[in-house]
Amino acid sequence: MNWDAVAAIGEWVGAIAVVVSIVFLTLQVRSNTRAIRGRAAYDANTAWADFSQVVAFRGAPEGEPFADLIAGVHEDGRPLSEMNSDEMLYLGQIWRSLTYRMEAHYWLAHHGLLEQSQWEIKARWLRGMIELPAAATWWEAERASGLYSPEFIAALLSLPASEPNVAPARRGGAD
Asked: Where along the chain do its domains lie?
């Protein structure tokens, strides 16, 4: 047995193992970096969403007026111009909270941490909501505010809309 040949083979096997290990570690670091970026974007957006939700709930109408407000917008197509300032503030903050959460989901999907189909199903719903008369007026102002990333807006607007059926059932049935 030639020990020099065995040593040479051992060195080659060791070198190959080192290269494979380095490639594996590189892939793991990239995957971890993507996960951290996605989670950071999610956390940042949900923090803003939570803030918007708190503001909305502090100004929320109580009981049946709340149901009628949501139903009026989502079922009857009530325009923003027919609402008082408290109703507009409340709805705007609720919509902003939803939109921030959707942007958080977008970034998770963008970074491969959420199935693309999960993002798209919910984004199509949001797309349908921002086509309602009151929400469309709100969305135009919201887009101009610069609160959302251009990537999110482009991805959202590239999707077809689905029906935004979120209105709570009115007490005693539909009017």
From this structure: 41-157
